[in-house]
Amino acid sequence: MRRVILIPSILIPALISVDLKFQTTGNKNRGKSMEIQSPMKLKRLVVIGRHKKDRISDLPDAILLHILSMVPDGKQVVRASVLGKRWRSLWMSVPMSIDFNFPQTENLVVTLDYLSSTLTELHYCKSCDKIPRFTIGGFRYEHCYAKYVDLWVSFATKVAKVEEFLLGLLSINDQTYDFPSYAFKNSLLKDLELRNCQLNPRTTVDWTNLSSLKIGYIDLTDDAMEKILSGSPNLKSLELDNFSGLQRLEINSVKLTQVMIESYYNDNDEIWLEIVAPHLQHLEVLELCSEIRIGQRNVPSLVTAIFRLNFNFENEEQDLEMEFSCLKELLHSVAHVQNLELGTWCIECLSILELKGWRPPPSSRKFLELNLAVIQLDFPGIYSFLQSSSDLETLIIGCWYNHNERNLLARYTDEDELSERFEKHNVKCSFSHLKTITINNFSGSSSENKFVLQLVKYLLKHAAVLKEFVIASTYQWMSLEYRKMAQKLLSFPMSSPHASVIFSDI
Predict the structure, then answer these.
(1) Is pLDDT of 447 > 70?
(2) Torsion angle, CA of 379/382/388/392, rounded to 10 degrees?
(3) Reported confidence tier of residue 355, pLDDT bands at 50, 70, 90
(4) pLDDT higher than 90, residue 157
(5) Looking only at Cα atoms, what is the longest distance across the chain?
(6) Which H helix or E strand runs over 141?
(7) CA distance 381 to 299
(8) 31-79 pLDDT, tens per residue?
(9) Res 2: pLDDT
(10) Where are the domains of the chain?
(11) In angstroms, rounded to a whole number, what is the distance separating the alpha carbons of residues 176 and 195?
């Protein structure tokens, strides 16, 4: 026998998002199936429910809690308390996350209204048994709002005792929030992200359970960073974003194996950031990072390095040689890694260095990803890296068609000279271990991809044990241009008899 449950409107989002079927546990209905009606019928059921008995409240606690846990909005969970006496305490047992996403406006009235609403919501949420996550995003911080931020931090660390806390502030007129001293002692936090928060721990830090830390838009000191790292013995991942001041990042923990650095800057070009991390396994350096030094002896355990960076010294002409020197130093420091990814700026500089006679150090890398600006003459840099990667097993080429670069390479060579030089190199390089080649973001006409096609032809000719050649394109499936390009690629000779050519859409 099928029974129809009358659904209160407040629970409709949860029941639409999940297909619930369950068995009733009451003695009278034991073993009989109860099924939620389809979403198209829910509104009709709600109207009926206003006049008939509310049967959903008769369900066991376990089922009601499951329904409440599927409600995506924490405010709706709180409002469930108005459904009846049974619900007044039930909603408090549901793990509920709090997310404040401030409207992007300079209207003071709107901002103050939203601030007031956060206090109201926290007043009700303090009764919850468990709040695993608390996030604040997009708040335009000024010192006059410090009391509100103080309350959020206090609620997260003292009242709710959350495991995940994100305090994402936007700085107005370079005003940053001073992170309170008591918040540096918390044994429950697992994931912490702070933006535009000044970190000046006056005593020791006690983040014993912290596994992931993200810090952004901040002026850091060596002393503060040392206290944070020493007070986070279980930290596994560290991300530093848009920061300055730090001169030495020394990581001695065996557990901290992943570091990402994005946009490191200093007003004084004489100040450099040195990274010393003997147990580090994964390192990413992204965006503008002019003054970073990594010696190979400093990162002996490194397995994966990702350099999608750009140097931006103030005097481009004068400091060009310094940029080349910095890049060479970085590449020497990661010659031992198994996996390496380079961004478009690195490839452009490598091309110039190759034309100047410099060669990358030999490596035993197995995986290489190269991102090239297709409109440029990047192939000397690509070739030089392929030549130094004799053990390579997987190669990924990322194509960027509208990438805004400085076009330095055009000062050193032209298209005709480059083509001739590239052809001469063909007989000097083979890939005895290369099994997989992937071309990502492939699009455009044959003329736009002249050099890419030349590179593909070269790779297929020399990869004797190739198993898979994947072209991931943005072409509309089975368009005329797609078919033309596919026919062109399939016409290239392949030295491997076992290679499969795979076309896929992005």
Answers:
(1) yes
(2) -130
(3) confident
(4) yes
(5) 88
(6) strand 133-141
(7) 25
(8) 333 343 434 343 444 444 444 555 666 777 677 767 666 666 666 666 6
(9) 46
(10) 9-71, 95-235, 242-337, 345-506
(11) 9
What's the CA gap between 253 and 150, in Å, rounded? 31
Q: Residue 465 in contact with residue 482, Cβ under 8 Å?
A: no
Nearest alpha-carbon partner for 474 in 464, 485, 463, 465: 485
SS3 sequence, 415-463?
A: HHHHHHHHHHHHHHCCCCCCCEEEEEEECCCCCCCHHHHHHHHHHHHHC
Answer whether CATH 3.80.10 is correct for domain 95-235. yes
DSSP 3-state of 25? coil
Read off the tokens for 406. Answer: 């400085």
CA distance 297 to 276: 8
Neighbours of 236 (CB within 10 A): 14
Contact 90, 63 (CB under 8 A): no
**245-349-452 Cα angle (round to 5):** 130
Confidence of residue 312 (pLDDT cuts 50, 70, 90): low
Rg (CA), the chain: 29
Which element (helix H / strand E) includes 122? helix 108-125
Phi first, then psi: what are they for 429, rounded to 5°? -135, 135
pTM of the model: 0.81
Q: Which residues are 177's β-sheet partners?
A: 197
Q: 294: how many CB neighbours lie within 10 A of its CB?
A: 24
- Per-residue confidence (pLDDT) for residue 272, from 0 to 100: 86
Is the CB of residue 391 less than 8 Å from the CB of residue 364?
A: yes
Among candidate residues 267, 286, 122, the one with its CA nearest the CA of residue 216: 286
